[in-house]
Every structure is written in C-alpha cells, then in structure tokens.
Amino acid sequence: MELVVLNTSGKETGRKVTFDDAVFGIEPNQHAVYLEVKQYLAAQRQGTSKSKERSEITGSTKKLKKQKGSGSARYGDIKSPIFRGGGRIFGPKPRDYRFKLNKALKRLAKKSVLSQKMRENSISVLEDLSFDAPKTKDFIKLLAALEFTGKKALFILPEANKNVYLSSRNLPKTKVMNYNEISSYDIVHAGEVIFLEGAIEKFQENLKK
Asked: Per its database record, what is this protein's job (predicted)?
C-alpha cells in the first residue's frame, strides 16, 4: 500500500511511501487491542486509595455492654464497623494495578489498530518537519494546511525534536511522540495519525522485531 507524501503546506510532493501490509494490512484483532488499552489505562491508576480497618482506628477497646442478657445484639468496642466512626469492612488498600502482556500480543494490537486506521483513510505522511524555535502559531498553521484543525491528531516522529514537541504542547487535541513511544491507546485515541516520512521505516522495523 502506498501513500503520497505531503509538505508542510498540505500539497503533494510527488513522492510516495510504501506501507508494509504485514503491519498496516492485517485483519484487526479486537481482543488484542482491548488488552493493550486495558493495560495502558491500568498503569495510569495511582492505586493510593486507603481506608482504615477497626485495628487502625483510634478509640477505646472497652466492651460497650455485657455479652448476654440485654435482649439485643452483641456489641464489641466503639471501633466496630457497625458504628459511626468505626473501621471499614473490606475497604480499599494501596495496590499496583499494572499487569504484563506478551510483546507479541502488544505488537499484534498495534498492527490491528494501524490496519483499522488505514482502512478508514486516517493515516497521512508528512515530509520531515523541523522548527527553528518553539512556536505554537506555526504548528497551528501546519494543522490548518493539513485540514486537521479541531481534530485529534497524533504526529509520529523519527527522533526526538524539542522544538516540534514544545510547539504542539499547548494544543489539547494534538500529540507529538517518537515512533518507539507509541501505544495502541495513543493510536486509538487519535482521529488522524500523521507519520513523518523518516519515521515510517523505523516504526515498521520496530514492529517486526
């Protein structure tokens, strides 16, 4: 599959880039995508929720009334979970929500998402991009030229570019990442995926390892 390379003005350069069908043309595996997105979201959770059990509550340990003979239920101390201010039964504790997935499954998930994006014509190729200085207005002009204004756009770079990153950082619907930092969640979340010309070969090789 081939796509035309666009310049920063949104015009065709006349060059074409070939996309490997083994990466961008497979039958999407939705379950693999679900698992990697679930893993990504789980890793974002802080897992710091905590409540106190009865052994952690400060209070008297005196038995409130005698065990038998009162005609009502048996009571323990004031820290019992049945009383206001007592401990909580089976409350949350700090935990790590992260879990592992096989590398092969994560590669399959990325291929599935990319193949779906290719079917939807949501992938574009842009000539290699560089800014002399960080300027958000220059990035806004680029989005307008590509007709991506107001759309969620993910730009995939062949290498770290500080000026490009800083120019896009204040745009809420735009994300700039290196080719080796991409997760399936990033691709799913983006409406349009824009590969810089130099990133395509590196990205494909990364998924074939």
From this structure: Forms part of the polypeptide exit tunnel.
Identify the structural domains of the chain with CATH numbers, from first to last.
Answer: 2-44+99-207 (3.40.1370.10), 51-91 (no CATH)
Query: What size, in residues, is the chain?
Result: 209
pTM: 0.81
Cβ contact 18:2 at 8 Å:
yes
Number of helical H runs and strand E runs in the chain: 7, 6
pLDDT digits (tens, 9 = 90+) for 39-76: 999 999 999 999 999 999 999 999 989 999 989 888 89
Q: Are 191 and 153 in contact (CB under 8 A)?
A: yes
Q: How far apart are CA 4 and CA 9, in angstroms?
A: 14
Cα(38)–Cα(81) distance, integer angstroms = 34
